[in-house]
Amino acid sequence: MIVPGEEDEDEVTEPVPILPILLPKGLEVVKLFDTPAEAPPPTPTSERLERGFSMQNNRETS
């Protein structure tokens, strides 16, 4: 016979909170990385980073 009390506490309660915690964090990480890459803030630091990456890409291509 199935005992709902024990199964709910051991099997159901643990995975249910873990999934919602992981999913939003993953989505947030993707959004954080996508947003600055598409529209970086006009700061000298970002410009230097972009120039550095472009120089590296040119060296690798040529």
Provide the descriptors you would attach to this structure in a database record.
mainly alpha; 3 helices; 62 residues
Describe the structure.
The chain has 62 residues and is mainly α. It has helices spanning 4-12, 15-38, 44-61. Residues 35-62 are annotated as: Disordered.
Secondary-structure blueprint:
Elements: H1 4-12, H2 15-38, H3 44-61
Briefly characterize the structure:
Helix content is 82%, strand content 0%. The protein is mainly alpha-helical and 62 residues long. Residues 35-62 are annotated as: Disordered.
Overall pLDDT score = 57
Which structural category fits the helices and strands? mainly alpha
Computed CA radius of gyration, to the nearest angstrom? 23 Å
Order of secondary-structure elements: HHH
* Number of separate helices: 3
DSSP strand count: 0
Please bin the fraction of helical residues. Answer: over 70%
Distance between the termini: 70 Å
Shape estimate = elongated
Poorly predicted runs: none
The description of the largest β-sheet is: none
Strand content: under 5%
